[in-house]
Write a structure and sequence with these properties.
Its main location: membrane. This protein is α+β, with helices and mostly antiparallel strands. It has twelve helices and 16 strands.
Length: 435
Amino acid sequence: MLASYVTTALRSFAQHKQHALLSLSGLSLGMAMLMLIGLFIQHELSFEQGQPGQQNHYRLVMHAQENGNEYILTTPRAHQQLLDIPGVESVFYLLRTQMVSDDKVAIGNNAFQLAANYAATPNLAKLVNIDVLAGDLTTTLNTPEKIALSRSEATRLFGAFATPDMVIGRTLKLQRNNRLLSVSAVFSDLPVNSHFYFHSLTSIEPFMGIRGNVMHTYVALLPNTNMELVAQSATEIYAQIWQWQNIHYWLQPIKDIHLGPNFAQDMKIGGDATSVTICAVMALVLLIISCVNYVNFSVAQSSNRAKEIGVRKAMGATRAQLITQFMSESILLAWFAMLVACVLVELFLPSFMQLIGRPLPALEWPIWLGQVFALATVIGVLSGLYQSMYMAGFNTKAILNGELKQGRQGVDQKGFIIAANGLVGGFTNKRHDVE
């Protein structure tokens, strides 16, 4: 029976090519836009999801009560005092070394500028998920004379053919003070769905004596710790250090950083929660428009299939069987449209990323395929439900007597008035010809 429905659907598509192509085009474009927007929303909501213990990690943010300005960098002078706050398990620091140095290095006769070098505390791996390809990151962050490079930074500095193991032990000379740094670890590039951004790491030990507010400061809290009390204690600590008045520190969960307020000192530009909400609404509107557009096309063309429906009913087809047949056609068309939409997504993804200014991850179709066709099935059901019930309800006698005319006209004593635009007008008690 199912094979019969599929065969009938394919024959119908071949017989009504223009209607099938128009419906296919509308659905596929709508699905493609829906998938692209869905990729963007998924990407924006996925930030920091892979970080270790991200539900208990927070960033310290200072709020100036006089002018409302906020600042995310603090001084390392409060390190021990922060650790003494009840409920604080760990404190993490990250310092962009370019704030205190030029980060220019020499390798042989070649000079380079380190792309994004940060000094970090040795416990960084408990804050950021770092995939170490070679060497020992903890040893690197405990030793001021060592440096860890990302895979792309190692390739840029030592050549495309330099493997992580080959890079270990190579040296870089800081041009500012002729200090030598030995490469002791190579790690994978950080994922794009993270607000953390660095391509090389060194020990923070030489910078712990800096007095200014230059460091990104994160804290790990023990479970069930009162965030407000920790923030209040941090406020008192920094107010005492700087003798400042009218300041307040608050804790920002790292999972909220990307879609939270953007700061000038952020490692990279963040997102916007309002934009994500607007995109979600747009995706829903596109889905509704695609479904309504398909319903309008189908209802407008329903009179062209009146004889087929009449003959099937005369041969004993039930209303349920006709509804199933038309629903099968709708779902099959939605599947074809989804295949076209997948091709369009691959074609337009680079342009879409350029438009939104975000590097989206590559689509993993083997994982997505089941979800994609489940979505196509839902769209097919939503799009085909009304028109299936409408066409299955045609009056058999009126159809076979020729009372249901082709084109821009309405129907029998019990039928619907079909207007020129294909919309259903209403009930009537006698036959009308719509000119």
